[in-house]
Design the sequence.
């Protein structure tokens, strides 16, 4: 899959045409045109020049260039100034024509009158006329250029010169402001994408070299000076500093880091010099994933976008043929009806029918929603997921690492008969030495002595139960109460409050260790915020004991909880909740661990904690929260609700106003002047409304 820039792509309908045409072209396996970023991603056998020529044939104004090629900013500014000068010139001639219309119109078809009005007509409509002509040559009709050309030439033909010029002039002014709006949207996203690091200082053989981030390998050492962006994910091996994480997490408070701390690409080093050992290549770094998600999110279109694209394809031809019928049939069947009157009404219908308000504002709205959420540290992988977030009525949370901190500490050691505390802890630590689970790490930290790995023989992890290991020819079991029952270990201790690891040695019960975990500071806030955004049910799933689950559920006032679950059990419970939901509602699952990945994949909306979460959970998720803060689940739902509301405001506004003016125009109660507002005015209002999402 290769990516190229599409220069002069300022029409959303054009983007749809290019994508649809290339998808049917022989040798093209897949193609996606992103109007919001003016980029095309294409997987094809054809050469670059052949694809460029094909795009030129479809849309003559659009030029495909290498992504590295950029339009000079000064040239863009000059083009804008030039357009303003042309528009002002057209307005001057138009006003002169209006002021001296009576003197110019000596005869019904005065050459002087035509000359004065045709000058502003050609000045303002040159691009429309040229584009319409090119499209007609290639057999392409029913776009806005064709509609404006037919409508204005028809007005000239029936001697409505001021109206013809007004339509073309105001259409051109509307296009100019529309281009400015689209450019503003793209600049807003560009500002977000500027967090991409441009270079890295690599330390090699005592020398510091400036290189591109994607040329740095895992294991290399880089230097990050004060004020610079961290170019790659890594671990600090020397230095102390404060880092600004706002670009990644949306959090404004700098974070203190030192040797042993992890830093992510895109963070800004505020104070000291840091020496960092690279742990991930740039292509897999946090910032690279964020940029990729934001730029490509619009390729996963929402149901609304797909509907509008299909609607616009049929809407314009229907209106054109309706206008033709209005122009021809009434004069033939109504006594005294004049062709000129009904042709004028048909022209009004043509002006109104342009679908710009639909096809531009809606993709911009969704793209703005994705960009606005990213600024808050919430990565939404597609506009379709924004729609799903807007309909969430049930949120299902994993416990450990999601609602709780996942930072465990040994708080009690209770040995069984014939065992000491030290022995019990030593056996548990030896059994857990190969595990990366936070509970296992807390036991190893509490033991804090060297473990002879050669003494450990057979080692078996029993999912959902615990671990079986052979240590110095003794069989050790370490796990939950269910493990004891599974292996028929006699014990008289059940239902201990808290997270408990039971230990058995050679079939004899050796005692238990109590490990505590704390709720995250914002866990209660997360639940209350979710209630405020309209959630009907909040559920917790955990592999922990029922006693621990009950305590957490009670502290957070959750509706339901399910404890002692295996990964497959979580999916089973989730399936049950999905079946129970109301029609049109969605179920979100929030988790962070490898064992949460199946549930994240099965949910209507899978949400992963991206800070401490496993790669499996993050890759599977539809939404990634970079701060590990559960309250941002509510923020992500708010983003979905607001985006969808703005999109439907635009759809409703466009339908009502266009529908009203179509009726008024057909009835003879509206002129072309009102029709211009119904087209250009509504499109601009919808675009500016869509841009509000970026400021959420």
Sequence:
């Amino acid at each position: 899959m290769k990516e190229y820039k599409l220069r002069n792509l300022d029409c959303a309908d054009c983007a749809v045409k290019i994508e649809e045409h290339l998808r049917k072209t022989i040798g093209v396996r897949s193609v996606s045109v992103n109007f919001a970023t003016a980029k095309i991603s294409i997987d094809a056998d054809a050469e670059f020049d052949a694809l460029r020529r094909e795009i030129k044939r479809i849309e003559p104004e659009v030029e495909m260039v290498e992504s590295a090629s950029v339009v000079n900013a000064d040239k863009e500014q000059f083009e804008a100034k030039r357009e303003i000068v042309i528009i002002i010139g057209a307005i001057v001639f138009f006003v002169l024509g209006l002021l001296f219309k009576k003197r110019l119109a000596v005869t019904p078809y005065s050459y002087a009158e035509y000359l004065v009005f045709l000058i502003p007509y050609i000045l303002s409509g040159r691009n429309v006329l040229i584009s319409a002509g090119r499209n007609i040559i290639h057999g392409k009709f029913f776009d806005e250029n064709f509609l404006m050309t037919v409508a204005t030439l028809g007005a000239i033909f029936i001697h409505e010169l001021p109206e013809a010029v007004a339509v073309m002039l105001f259409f051109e002014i509307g296009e100019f402001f529309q281009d400015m709006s689209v450019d503003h949207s793209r600049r807003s996203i560009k500002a977000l994408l500027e967090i991409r690091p441009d270079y890295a200082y690599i330390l090699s053989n005592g020398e510091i070299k400036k290189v591109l981030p994607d040329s740095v390998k895992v294991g290399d050492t880089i230097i990050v000076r004060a004020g610079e962006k961290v170019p790659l994910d890594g671990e600090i091996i020397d230095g102390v500093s404060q880092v600004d994480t706002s670009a990644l997490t949306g959090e404004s408070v700098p974070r203190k880091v030192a040797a042993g701390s992890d830093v992510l690409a895109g963070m800004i080093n505020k104070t000291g010099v840091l020496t960092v050992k690279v742990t991930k290549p740039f292509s897999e770094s946090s910032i690279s994933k964020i940029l990729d998600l934001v730029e490509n999110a619009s390729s996963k279109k929402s149901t609304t976008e797909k509907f509008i694209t299909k609607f616009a394809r049929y809407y314009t031809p229907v209106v054109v043929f309706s206008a033709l019928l209005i122009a021809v049939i009434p004069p033939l069947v109504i006594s005294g009806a004049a062709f000129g009157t009904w042709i004028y009404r048909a022209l009004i219908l043509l002006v109104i029918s342009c679908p710009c308000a639909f096809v531009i504002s809606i993709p911009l709205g969704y793209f703005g929603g994705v960009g606005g959420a990213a600024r808050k540290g919430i990565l939404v992988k597609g506009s379709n997921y924004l729609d799903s977030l807007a309909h969430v009525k049930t949120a299902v949370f994993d416990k450990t690492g999601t609602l709780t901190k996942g930072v465990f500490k040994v708080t009690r050691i209770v040995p069984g008969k014939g065992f000491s505390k030290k022995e019990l802890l030593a056996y548990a630590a030896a059994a857990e030495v190969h595990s990366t689970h936070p509970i296992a790490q807390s036991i190893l930290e509490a033991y804090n002595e060297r473990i002879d790995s050669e003494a450990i023989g057979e080692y078996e992890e029993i999912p959902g139960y615990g671990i079986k290991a052979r240590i110095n020819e003794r069989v050790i079991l370490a796990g939950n109460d269910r493990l004891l029952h599974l292996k028929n270990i006699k014990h008289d201790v059940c239902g201990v409050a808290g997270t408990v690891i039971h230990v058995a040695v050679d079939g004899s019960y050796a005692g238990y260790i109590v490990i505590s975990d704390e709720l995250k500071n914002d866990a209660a806030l997360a639940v209350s915020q979710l209630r405020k955004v309209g959630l009907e049910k909040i559920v917790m799933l955990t592999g922990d004991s029922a006693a621990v689950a009950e305590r957490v559920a009670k502290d957070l006032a959750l509706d339901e909880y399910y404890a002692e679950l295996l990964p497959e059990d979580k999916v089973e419970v989730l399936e049950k909740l999905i079946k129970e939901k109301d029609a049109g509602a969605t179920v979100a699952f929030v988790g962070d661990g490898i064992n949460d990945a199946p549930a994240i994949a099965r949910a209507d909306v899978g949400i992963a904690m991206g800070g401490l979460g496993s790669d499996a959970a993050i890759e599977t998720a539809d939404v990634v929260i970079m701060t590990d803060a559960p309250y941002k689940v509510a923020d992500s739902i708010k983003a979905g609700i607001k985006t969808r509301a703005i999109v439907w405001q635009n759809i409703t506004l466009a339908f009502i106003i266009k529908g009203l003016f179509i009726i008024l125009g057909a009835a003879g109660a509206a002129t072309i002047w009102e029709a211009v507002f119904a087209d250009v005015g509504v499109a601009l209002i919808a675009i500016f409304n869509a841009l509000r999402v970026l400021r959420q």
